[in-house]
C-alpha cells in the first residue's frame, strides 16, 4: 500500500503542475486561441465578425452552455484544411506537454466541420498526423475520440459514423457533446449500439447541466464507459453507489463548471465530495481557450478554492491514468512516475 507523502500547502501548486497526468476531456476545437483563430482566418481568407484578437476575447463573457456554444462554432469556422487541423492540434499538444500531460484523449466534433462543407478526411488526418508528430517530438501519447453533436439528429450521427469509418484506425472511441438539456442519451441509443459492435470505446457528456437521469441513460442506454462531467450525480445516492462500485470514471472540468455557472464559486465545487465518496473523478480543461485555462490552471485554482491537499492531488492523477483507454502496463508505469514526482516534492519540502 502506497502512502502519499504530505506536501506543505505552499509547495502544492508546484507539485500539481509538475506531477504527470492524463487529460481525458478536452475538445480540440475548444483549444483554438483567438490568436490562432485570426491567423487561420487570414491564411484562409475567412471574414470574422470581430475586429481583432481583443474584441474576440472580450466576447468570451458567456454565462451558460448555449451562449458559449454560439461563439465556439463561430471560432471553428476558420478551420478548412488538413494543415489547419494539424496546427490546432499541435498547439494544444505542445501546451499539454508544458503542463506535464503524459497522455491525452482528444475529443473532436466532425459535424461542426462537415456541416460547413469540410470533408472528413482533412479533419481526421490533420488531427492524427499531429498526434503522431507530437509523440515523436515530445513523447506525449494520444488518442482521438469522435464526438457526435447531440443537438443534431441520430440519423446525422449515423451518417457521420459512416463517413468516419474509413479512418477507423485513427480514432479509438466515440462521445456525445454539445447542448445537453433537452437532448437526452436515449436519442442516440442506436448509434452507440453500432459503435459498441464496432469495438469503439464509448464516453458521453451527462450530468453537467442535465439531471442524474441523463447519467443513468448514458450508462444503460449508451453503454458509456466514462461519464464526461457527471457532477450532478451527487443528487442521486443510488447512482453514486453504482459509479463507485463499477469504477466508472467522471471527467470533471472545474473552470468550465465555474464559467458556465454550474458552480459559480469554485469553492463550492463538489470535487472533494466526489473523491470522498470513492469515485474515479478526474480534472480536465474541457475547452481551455474559452474557459480560462489549461489543465494545470484547473488543478491549481480548484485546489486553492477548495483547500484539497496532497492525498487528493495524488488520487486525481492516479484516477486519470486508471480512467484512460490504454493497457494496464502503461498505467502502472505512469503510477511509478507519479510516485517519483511526489518523492521529489517531499525531498524539497
Ligand atoms: Zn466537454
Automatic annotation (TrEMBL):
Which coenzyme or cofactor does it need?
Zn(2+)
Active-site residues are 208
Domain of life (superkingdom): Bacteria
The reply on keyword Transmembrane helix is no
MF terms (GO), sorted A to Z: adenine deaminase activity; zinc ion binding
Its UniProt entry gives the catalysed reaction(s) as:
adenine + H2O + H(+) = hypoxanthine + NH4(+)
Q: Name one GO cellular component term.
A: cytosol
GO terms of biological process kind: adenine catabolic process; hypoxanthine salvage; nucleotide metabolic process
Task: Give binding positions for Zn(2+).
Answer: 25, 27, 205, 286
Q: What Gene3D superfamilies does this protein map onto?
A: Metal-dependent hydrolases
Q: What is its EC number?
A: 3.5.4.2
User: Site Important for catalytic activity: which residues?
Assistant: 229
Q: Is-annotated flag, keyword Zinc?
A: yes
Instruction: Specify which residues bind substrate according to the UniProt entry for this protein.
Output: 287
Q: Matching Pfam families, A to Z?
A: A_deaminase
Question: Where is the Adenosine deaminase domain positioned along the sequence?
Answer: 20-337
The record's remark on the cofactor is: Binds 1 zinc ion per subunit.
Keywords linked to the UniProt accession: Hydrolase, Metal-binding, Nucleotide metabolism, Zinc
Q: What does this protein do?
A: Catalyzes the hydrolytic deamination of adenine to hypoxanthine. Plays an important role in the purine salvage pathway and in nitrogen catabolism.
Sequence similarity: Belongs to the metallo-dependent hydrolases superfamily. Adenosine and AMP deaminases family. Adenine deaminase type 2 subfamily.
Q: What is this protein called?
A: Adenine deaminase
What lineage does UniProt assign to this protein's organism? Bacteria, Pseudomonadati, Pseudomonadota, Betaproteobacteria, Burkholderiales
